[in-house]
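Protein folds are increasingly written down as discrete tokens. With that in mind, we are printing a sequence and the tokens encoding its fold.
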Amino acid sequence: MTQATKVSTERRAGVGGRRLAEAFEAVSGMPTLFEARRRLLGLCERSGATPNEVADAIEADSALAIAIMRAANNGAGPSGRTGGVREAVEALEVDRVRTLAESLETYDVLGTPGATSERSERFRRHAVAVRIGTERIGEVARLPQRDELAVAALLHDVGKLVLEQLYGDRPEAETRGVSPDERARLERREFGIDHALVGAVLVRRWGMPKIIAGAVERHHAPDATGHAAAIRLADMIVHHAAGDPVWTGSMREAAAALGLDDAALNTLLFEFPHASEKRRRAAEPCPLSMREMDALRGLAEGKVYKQIAQELTLSVSTVRTHLHNVYRKIGAVDRAQAVLIARDRGWL
């Protein structure tokens, strides 16, 4: 049996629990980009740095985001309690964030070349690009919990690092000309599992919220919806911008799952990577249900109860009940104040 045949047989047969645990451990300790950590530490030392500024610095590097989110979701209290990076920064406070960042190993793009640094930087660049694309899609599609969406986008391909630890880097010749969804299918055929599912297992082990793990797990599913569909679409847009093959039908499929037509999809494709508007972060968790948010968005667009009811296929009385619940939950006295409060808190 040749060495290539042995490797192929081992891939198809899968790996034992010990090797998988070792791969998880290796990925959990991935290094951070030196420049990203330097900027974060500089902010932590600066008097008056806001949680938003610190969160922006953390979201420039997946390894930083992983370290901060893991710390905020483990230890005292239930796991999965912290969904966004800003929320994690506020929970940990700046001194703990600085200590965590100082403990991380780093790599330098201008330093000595090596497989680890090249793999880490390739992963970081793609993760940040998908995060930027996902944030724009989340805004256009009016998705809730966009801080959680940003974290899921940063971690969406972490399972690839696990598979690389187990089986080594896949030769470029094997993936050239292959679309993102097709790569996942190739993994399932060869390994019996794909990077999305492996990544979701690791994200759950890190104690992160279900909404993040679920989006990571489903981001290559043809029937993905919500956060997973947004990441799937952003991933394809990033690959398209890089000149990689992407099926138009798959992009339309993901866009349709988010309620976006061809005009909206064309705009997203045209804007990326030039769209630079920063996401408005939620100042506090949103207490409203999905339907209550839908009704509130209708008010924000100047629609009357009847129009909102028709769009949501609800009765006028049900819409009225949802909006009364909105007023009660956020302490608003009328529709104008409700919209102002929601926008001020970053929910709209």
The longest strand covers residues 32-33. The longest helix spans residues 115-140. The chain has 21 helices and two strands.
